[in-house]
Amino acid sequence: LPLAAADFSVKLTATPLPTDVSADVKKTLGKDCITLTIGGKPWLEFWLRAPLPLKAKPSKPEKALDALATATLMGVVRVHKSGRDYRDDDLYKGVFTMRYGKIPGDGNHLGASDYPYFAVLIPAKKDPKLDTYKTFKTMTKASLKETAAEHPMILSLRPAKKTTAKPAIIEPAPEHKSILLTAAGALKDVKSPIPFQIVFEGIGEQ
Fold first, then answer.
1. What is the rounded radius of gyration, in angstroms, for the C-alpha atoms of the chain?
2. What is the pLDDT along the chain (206 residues), one digit of tens a residue?
3. What is the pTM of this model?
4. What is the Cα–Cα distance from 159 to 21, expressed in whole angstroms?
5. Dihedral (Cα; 195, 197, 198, 202), 10-degree rounding
6. Which residues are paired to 130 by β-bridges?
7. C-beta separation of 75 from 38 below 8 A
8. At 142, is the secondary structure helix, strand, or coil?
9. Whether 80 contacts 6, CB under 8 Å
10. Counting CB atoms within 10 angstroms of each CB, which of 31, 53, 86, 202 has the fewest?
11. Cα separation of 105 and 112, whole Å?
């Protein structure tokens, strides 16, 4: 049975980065760790890039994710216990980089998600540079090699209508739960907050 929101909690911690993360990636990440727990035990830990580089100024908060370029390194996630991703494929235990992507408009993914945004997960040891992967094809291929499924390992992302000072757990849709947060984005020297959600429970249409 799906767990209730009360079974989860999210908080900012000072948890050190895993040793799998390269020095080049580590120096781009913020100090805070966003820790999602189940029953008091860590399940997902996120270290977000700060600032998150943008290709354009967001037109409004709910369009903020469109300001990211494909394959942009968004941060690092540690999965403490294997689970299922948004496609109901394996979400493996381990330490992964998160790279930004959007569902292709090729007609093969219609109805797969309410929104086209996602983060591709790649083992941190195989993604040591900010530009290790520069395109949709190379980053998804790298993730695909690590899974038994015929699809890259992903975390679904959803837009948010307003910024939040601290991460929070919300239920954006029936049988869905997500972490609502705000990343620090920047275009050159101009700072722009990037509010969004990371979905941790819920399955898209197959």
1. 16
2. 344 555 899 999 999 999 999 999 999 999 999 999 988 899 999 999 999 999 999 989 999 999 999 999 999 999 998 776 656 556 789 999 999 999 876 444 444 457 899 999 999 999 999 999 999 999 999 998 877 767 788 999 999 999 998 999 999 888 889 999 999 999 988 999 999 999 998 776 64
3. 0.89
4. 27
5. -170
6. none
7. no
8. helix
9. no
10. 31
11. 11
d(CA 181, CA 173): 17
Burial track 46-82 (b if 16+ CB lie within 10 A, e otherwise): bbbbebbbbeeebeebbebbbbbebbbbbbbbbbbee
Please name which of 64, 51, 25 lies closest in space to residue 186, comparing C-alpha atoms. 51
Q: How many CA atoms lie within 13 A of 85 on its CB side?
A: 24
